[in-house]
Amino acid sequence: MTNIIMEVKQITKNIGKRPIIHESSFQLEQGKIYGFIGPNGAGKTTVMRIMTGLIQPTSGEVRIDSYSVKTQRQQAIARVGAIIESPVFFEYMTGRQVLRNLSRLHPTIKSNQREEHIEKLLTTVGLEKRGDDKVRTYSLGMKQRLGIAQSMLGSPKLLLLDEPSNGLDPIGMRELRDIIFKLRESENLAFFISSHLLDELQQMCDELIIIREGSIILKGPKEDIVKEGQRLEDAFLELVQ
Ligand SMILES: Nc1ncnc2c1ncn2[C@@H]1O[C@H](COP(=O)(O)OP(=O)(O)OP(=O)(O)O)[C@@H](O)[C@H]1O
């Protein structure tokens, strides 16, 4: 049995006549945390939007759990959760109401299991005691964690997080990191995380994928890319400068 959860096969993306992503391929395995890094404008968000079917590649294809994002969209997308831009919520609702409303969009959640599912997710992200408070009273870290709970509603096998630590204080960052580790452990989830906060990413990820000017220039285990005792930031700067 394969443990490949996503295959990105020779994708390219042109916007107008301008090539934004040059032919790029990589695979993601279950239970691993991938750090996706590159300078501003390198194409990270574009690749993540292609991975989640928000936009189509000009050529190439993406498969999630063997389902094509293009031709088997429903099955493919059901297996991935994503926070591509900061999660936006109706602030006048409680965290629980937000999850309850969004859960109705997931046909796999049976109505008699909805409340139990939501309670479990609130507990997973450490919001079980604040679930009945309005979102407007939440800190940024709590909103980010509610975003993780939201992206977990459909019980995905892979979570894509775009800049999840942005704006978080050290406590918020640690809470987020602990949740990511916990979910990897309990659900064998894979994570694909884009971030400019390289010290933080270095602590979290197992593998790195580095993009520059629309091309993947390096991918592999963190230990192969960052020497022992070296900071990811220094390894990264050596590679892209
Ligand atoms: N809709 C669009 N129309 C025109 N150009 C675009 C569009 N979307 C992205 N681009 C261009 O594609 C390139 C890659 O952008 P993208 O947002 O994917 O980079 P990024 O690596 O996520 O950058 P950052 O780290 O700054 O968020 C940039 O040069 C950007 O200007």
Describe the structure.
With 241 residues, the protein is α/β, with parallel strands linked by helices. The chain folds into two domains: 4-79 and 156-240, P-loop containing nucleotide triphosphate hydrolases (Rossmann fold), CATH 3.40.50.300; 90-154, no CATH class. Helices cover 35% and strands 27% of the residues. The chain has nine helices and ten strands. It has a six-stranded mixed β-sheet with strand order 6-7-8-3-9-10, with helices on both faces. Strand 7 (158-162), helix 6 (170-187) and strand 8 form a beta-alpha-beta unit. The longest helix is centred in the last third of the chain and has 18 residues, at 170-187. The radius of gyration is 18 Å and the shape is globular. The termini are far apart. Bound molecules: adenosine-5'-triphosphate. Adenosine-5'-triphosphate is lined by residues 15, 20, 38, 40-46. Residues 6-238 form the ABC transporter domain. InterPro entries: AAA+_ATPase, ABC_transporter-like_ATP-bd, ABC_transporter-like_CS, P-loop_NTPase. GO terms for molecular function: ATP binding; ATP hydrolysis activity. Keywords: ATP-binding, Nucleotide-binding, Transport. Pfam families: ABC_tran (PF00005).
